[in-house]
Specification:
Helix content: 10-25%
Radius of gyration: 39 Å
Distance between the termini: 70 Å
Number of helices: 2
Largest sheet: 5 strands, mixed, barrel
Mean pLDDT: 85
Low-confidence stretches: 1-18
Shape: elongated
Length: about 375
Amino acid sequence: MAYNFNFYTPPAPGATGRRASPNSSPVFARVVNVILENNDPSLIGSINYRVIGSATSEESPDLPIAYPSQGSIKKLPLKGEIVVLESLPDSNLFTSISSKKVYYTRTVDIWNHPSYNGYPDEYQPVTVGDLGRGVIEPITVNPLLPFQGDMLIEGRQGQSIRFTGFKSELADGTNINTFVDDENNGKPLIIISNDQISTDNGFDHIKEDVNEDSTSIYLTSDHTIPLNAASSKRDSYDTTKTDVPQDFSTYRGSQLIANSGRIVLNSKQDSILLSATSTVGLNGQSINLDGESYTSIDSPKIYLGTSAILEQDPVLLGNETVKLLKDLVDSLRTFFTDLTTATTVSGEPIPKFLETVPSISRKLTRIEGRLESLKSKKVWVE
């Protein structure tokens, strides 16, 4: 980022430094230090400053302090940035209605850029580019392109929240808010994004990209979001019915979209519940369900496999199947036992039966002993 150091005319030699007066109108000051550790917790987030135009050295150990003016929403400035100072009531207000102290209310966005708006003073013995201990200027961060009526919150590292909903037409009639058209103009859309696409110029205004941003959440009301599906397999759906979900990139309506390199839903106390009036679709390289106690699936019909919906090959019931097989074994045993008493027309025993029936009976006994092993110890069906 290039700097122009002619921000102000340096004070004449011998001029004295000054502080923001408790009774003066707002003044501008350069941040010299951001207080992040102190025995007094009320000082955390405060700054040491030097009023613009002051001859006071920024290396002085006695620089004045300005407090953050907001307790719930804070934007901490960085070293070298310009802030607006105001004198506002302090904690001694009940003692004296004129009791005030100096607060910083906002930073001055000199460069109109979310990452850093510093303006070092070349007349001060401070290294240009020193943003504070451990802070580096994120040169790959770009400002968001605003649309008509937008409310934007942009972080220094490429995080952002956009509240949008109006068409934004240029002079040639081009609408740069591609999420909005004549049909949904004025309907709310919220975009939460973390990290951005890469550009060659850190000052180019960019738009969010649901497929390229590291992590993003879209809250729509009547919008189409061009999301590329990580997996498009939908073979379990019956294409003859109307419950096949519409493609991600073409659906238009009220929806919540979360896209990231990995998504984790974790309930540390109770349950995670997913419900839908239509279908719940899960797809990926594998679908893994692990229950520490049990896994239960219930439906009027359960299909396993893409062709199962044709209902040509039903699952067997374990107990009923084993019972029928035992009945069959008993019937065969009785039949083969009767064969041992069978005789020829002349009343003589049949030698072949006498030889084979004992062997068959033993096999039937072994088969009968293995029937219980057909039953799964983990899977049960109704």
